[in-house]
Here is the input.
Amino acid sequence: MDAKELLTIGEVAHRSGFPPSALRYYEREGLLRTTRTSGGQRRYERSVLRRLAFIRAARTIGIGLDEVRVGLDQLPDGRTPTKADWSRLSRAWRGRLDEQIQALVALRDGLDSCIGCGCLSLQRCRLYNPGDRVGELGPGARLLPPMLRRTPAEGV
Amino acid sequence: MDAKELLTIGEVAHRSGFPPSALRYYEREGLLRTTRTSGGQRRYERSVLRRLAFIRAARTIGIGLDEVRVGLDQLPDGRTPTKADWSRLSRAWRGRLDEQIQALVALRDGLDSCIGCGCLSLQRCRLYNPGDRVGELGPGARLLPPMLRRTPAEGV
DNA sequence: GTGCGACTTGAAGTCAGCTTTAGGTCAAGG
DNA sequence: CCTTGACCTAAAGCTGACTTCAAGTCGCAC
Here is the structure.
């Protein structure tokens, strides 16, 4: 029950799975706050583990740190987040996940039709998307799901 | 019908949607080949548009350029790829897409159960994945789909 | 032949999200 | 008190996929 049971960076690293360098980085970026010993070493409250779990989950579904920070800022400062707090954030993520899934399914279905048609002409293939037509639409392909366009591995 | 109808880099850029800088980059990286004018300017065969469509599709589903190059190298050198050529590549992508979709769906379902339970304790939540337990499992969270785990610290 | 936009190159810059390095300091057990 | 491992900082480095820059060249219309 003591509020004194503070964790060292090494302990947090071990329990959270984030390396110390990442923890320091997150602190610099304003995602975590720490107290310090008289000697300047970091001491973490246990609640940081929850924040880190949040961060990991968010990163997992491709949310950038800027956005994670916004989410964390919406959580109440010291106290345990309420059910409503989590629900709000969770719903936002749910929407994002749905979008990502939908985009991938659309892409997969397009791919299936490619396999079916042989895709030799590439004229009607949604996935390969003939360049001549795209060119007329202006720079940057516009036929693929926005979620996935221009989003290499990181977001997926 | 002439084989002479070659495209300038600007034309290819316009038709493919890739900026000239990306086209030069892809050439340096061995994804494209070009002929040159006597003065050293690039001239592209029309077939490059197909390769670029391939590249765009691959990039869209998160495939890195290294792997794209491997895929392109499997296509016959000069001639139009056969149905079998495309099918082989497409099937590989299909599998990858299926994996990605499955991982996202698993994540979404986990998120749904979080919303349901309120996630106040975080003790049983698959998505948030309590740090204390993870700590006991060794470094690096192990509860999320491999596809999406993307632990920031692969080396830890 | 001249003007000018499109083209050429290599090198350096960008972005995210960290990691690594160098050179020191702290804290706790013996 | 001393040792030793964990910790500190700032700054630089890394990866991938490009973009931007500087300085110069090409090619086509007039």
In short: Helices of chain A lie at 9-16, 20-28, 47-60, 65-74, 83-117, 131-136. The CA atoms of residues 16 and 49 of chain A lie 6 Å apart.
